[in-house]
Specification:
Elements lengths: L3 H20 L3 H5 L9 H19 L8 H11 L4 H19 L8 E3 L5 E3 L3 H15 L11 H14 L7 E7 L4 E4 L3 E10 L1 H8 L9 E3 L10
Parallel strand pairs: 3-5
Antiparallel strand pairs: 1-2, 3-4, 5-6
Length: 229
């Protein structure tokens, strides 16, 4: 059951954690490499700000981005900005997102995201929560997958498992976390069933493309190669 109001509270909490952590950086740190190939921390921060504005567009019935080129251009243009500008943009764009989400609306309606992807409006706050939490980790400033709220890790693992369910390149796979939770995914490729076991953080890291899966235990075959997100 999706509770968009509860997710909006979680987004606010995650954003405050991010703002506090980024506020402890300096200008030099913003220009240094993030954990995302080819992106500095400034790229990640600018992406988070523009993503908030893009989701405002989604709420208000406009295209998420004017174009892929415009999206990429905005990120490149904003990446070199000093820390104070990045922080101000991150804060005010987050406020615009929250304000747009508080406008009375039909949360059961279908909205369009990037690349023709559609979803229910009620899931947009969770999608923003994903952006804030995972990109906080991507900054490489001391916030790790193990630090994510357990409720988020559990839900995002299920979300990604569902995304790969039936994928033609992924064999039938059971994911088992050390806390006892389990999910199934894949099934569209030959082979399997494969069982992948590990900590909640390691399973999420593998599914989200943040870890190579080397810490996972695999039974019944090789570790499946997941398609890019």
């Amino acid at each position: 059951m999706i509770d968009h109001a509860d997710d909006l509270v979680s987004v606010q909490a995650a954003t405050e954690r991010l703002l506090r952590a980024v506020g402890a950086l300096d200008n030099a740190a913003v220009t240094q490499s993030s954990r995302l190939p080819g992106w500095t921390r400034g790229h990640v921060l600018t992406h988070l700000s523009r993503n908030a504005d893009a989701l405002v567009n989604v709420f208000e019935g406009r295209p998420m981005y004017a174009s892929a080129e415009a999206r990429d251009g905005d990120i490149e243009a904003g990446a070199p900005r000093p820390l104070d500008e990045q922080l101000a943009d991150l804060r005010t764009s987050a406020e615009r997102f929250q304000a747009a989400a508080e406008v009375p609306a039909d949360w059961s309606r279908t909205v369009e995201l990037r690349n023709g992807v559609t979803d229910r409006a009620a899931r947009v706050p969770f999608r923003r929560w994903i952006e804030v939490e995972l990109h906080h980790v991507d900054l490489g400033i001391g916030y790790e997958l193990e630090d994510l709220p357990a409720a988020f890790t559990d839900r995002e693992t299920g979300f990604l498992a569902a995304r790969f369910d039936g994928h033609p390149d992924v064999p039938a796979t059971t994911l088992t976390a050390t806390d006892g939770r389990s999910w199934t995914t894949g099934g569209g490729a030959d082979g399997g069933p494969v069982t992948v076991e590990g900590t909640p953080a390691d399973l999420l890291g593998w599914l989200a493309g943040r870890r190579d899966g080397g810490a996972l235990t695999v039974k019944g075959g090789d570790l499946p190669k997941l398609p890019p997100l």
